[in-house]
Amino acid sequence: MSHGLLLVPVGAAPGDVVRVEGAAYRVETDALGAVLVPEGRLWGAQTQRSLINFTIGSERMPTPLHRAYGLLKAAAARANRDLGTLDPELAALVEQAAIEVAEGQHDDDLVLSVWQTGSGTQTNMNVNEVIANRAVQVAGGVLGTKSPVHPNDHVNRSQSSNDTFPTAMHVAALLAVRRDLVPAATALADAIAQRADRWADVVKLGRTHLQDATPVTVGQEWGAWATLLRDTLADVGQATDGLRALAIGGTAVGTGMNSAAAFGPAVAAQLTELTGEAVTSADDKFAALSSSAPMLRLSAALRGLATVMEKVAEDLRWLGSGPRAGLHEIALPENEPGSSIMPGKVNPTQPEAVLMVAAQVHGLDTAVAHSASRANFQLHVMRPVIAYDVLRMIDLLAGACDSLRRHCIDGVELDENRIRADLANSLMLVTALSPVIGYDKSAAIAHHAHVHEHSLRDAALALGVDEATFDATVRPGDMTHPD
Fold first, then answer.
1. Which among 55, 315, 368, 418 could bridge 299 via Cys, Cβ 3.0 to 4.6 Å?
2. 427-480: which CATH topology?
3. pTM of the full predicted structure?
4. How far apart are CA 280 and CA 268, in angstroms?
C-alpha cells in the first residue's frame, strides 16, 4: 500500500476492474504508478492521490471554478484544433466532455479539497482526468486506458496548471459577478430607491453621532443608501476589468514553453465567445503567473460593498428599534417570532444576517490579502484559497442582497406618527434660528428647553424670540434643502 492508497493487484493493467473487500475499483495510472479508483467515477490516479493526501477540512473547490475550467478546456481544445496542434476528432471529443463539465453534468466527479498545492495542480488534473475519461467513454473506449484521449497529452495540450488555474479563477469570478452579484445588488439598490421616491417628502429628524440633528427627509436618507450601493457596485465592476487579462499561454513560468505563441490569444477569443465576457491573453504572462493582484483588487471592492451593506443593515436595525422604547421610525416585516421566552417579540433578523455576512466577507478579504502576499519568483502559490474565498464572498453578498430586498426592504413601512412626534420634539430645529438671533442665543434656547422640559417654541418665546420670527424661521421642511 502506498500513500494510503489501496494495493493494486499484481498484473492488473490500466482500465482493469478489480474487487477489494467487495467493492469495485478501476486501475488508473500516473507518473508514480498504478492507483485504484472507485469504479463508476470519472477521475483518475492524480485525483485519487489528492483525495488521500489532502484530507484537510471540509471545504471543496467551488463549483463555479470547475464550471469555468470546463469552459477553458473547451476553448483550449478549439484553439489547439485551429492551430493544428490537436487532431480535430480528438479536439471534438475533448470539447464535448469539457462543455459537459461547464454545464455541471459531472460536478460529482470534481471533488478535491481547497487545501491542496498552491498552484491548483490537483484541481487542474481532476478536471483533465474527468474530461479525458468522459471523452474516452464517448468514443467507446475503456476508462482508465487514456485512449483515445489522454488527460495530459490532449486535454492539457499547450497548457500548465500554472496558467490554467489563474485563468479559470478569473473567468469564474467574472461570471459570478455578472450573473449573481450584479443582478442581486442592483435589485436591492433599485428597491431602496423606490422607497426613497415614495417617501421623498416625509420630513424626519436627522441624526449625527446617534444624537438629534437637523431634519432630513426619509427620501434623502434612503436615497443615500441606494447611491452608496450603486457606487460600490461600480467599484466592483471596475475591479473585474483587471480580471480580463488572462494568464493562459504562459504555461509553466510565463515563457509559453510547449505552447504556440498564438495559443493564448486564440483561447481568449474562444472564451470571449463562450462566456460573453471580453477577455484577452495578458501581455505580461510573467506578471499574470507570479501574482494574484487582480483578485486582490476584486476582494477589496467586495469588502467595500460589504461595508456599505453593514451601514444599511445597522441603520435599519436602529430605525426599527423598539417598538416602544426605541426609535421605531420604520416597521420591519415580521418574518418570524424573535424569542423563545418573550411572547410577541420580533427581531430585525434580515439586517442581522447581513451584518454576519459582512463580517465574514471582511474575514475572507483579510485571508485573500495575506494569501496574495505569498508570491515567490515566477509563481503565486496560494491560489486555491483565494479562488475559494473570493467566490464565497460573491455568493454571500449576492445572497444577502437578495434576501434583504425580498424579506425586508420590500415590506418596510413608516411609522409616520412616531416620525412626526420626534421631529416636533427636536431641539436641533433651533439651528434655523442661529443666522437670525446668533449661535449663543440659539444654544441658550436649546439648553433651556432641555433642562426645563419645554418645547423649543416655548423656550424661544420665554427667552425673547417673537412668535412671528420663530414661526417664519423654524420650518422643518425648509431645512431639508438649501434656499
1. 368
2. Ribonucleotide Reductase Protein R1; domain 1 (1.10.40)
3. 0.95
4. 5
Q: What are phi and psi of 409, to 5 degrees?
A: -55, -45
HEC letters along 130-149: HHHHHHHHHCCCCCCCCCCC
Tell me which amino acid residue 87 is. Answer: D
Domain boundaries, the chain: 41-157, 162-206+216-264+276-414, 427-480
Residue 1 has pLDDT above 90, yes or no: no
Q: Which of 58, 209, 340, 481 is catalytic?
A: 209
237 three-state secondary structure: helix
Q: Indicate the angle between helix axes 161-176 and 263-275, nearest 10 degrees.
A: 20
Strand partners, 280: 245
CATH number for the segment(s) 41-157 = 1.10.275.10
Q: Is 339 a catalytic residue?
A: yes
Q: What is the pLDDT of residues 90-133, one digit of tens each?
A: 999 999 999 999 999 999 999 999 999 999 999 999 999 999 99
What are the C-alpha distances in Å from 414 to residues 39, 229, 331, 477, 478? 62, 22, 6, 18, 21
pLDDT-based confidence at residue 266 (cuts at 50, 70, 90): very high
Characterize the bridge pairing of strands 203-208 and 211-217.
antiparallel
CATH architecture of 162-206+216-264+276-414: Up-down Bundle (1.20)
Burial class (CB in 10 A: 0-12, 13-18, 19+), 254: buried
Q: Which of 2, 147, 339, 373 is catalytic?
A: 339
Is 209 tagged catalytic? yes
Distance CA(78)–CA(248), nearest Å, equals: 14
Q: Where is 474: in which H helix or E strand? A: none
Q: What's the rounded Cα separation, in Å, for the pair 57 and 35?
A: 24
Size of the chain, expressed as the number of residues it contains:
483
- pLDDT for residue 33 is more than 80: yes
Cα–Cα dist 371/381, whole Å:
8
- CA nearest to 364, candidates 338, 394, 325, 335: 394
CA distances to 103, 443, 481 from 42, rounded to whole Å, are 16, 78, 67
Nearest-angstrom CA–CA distance, 15 and 148: 13
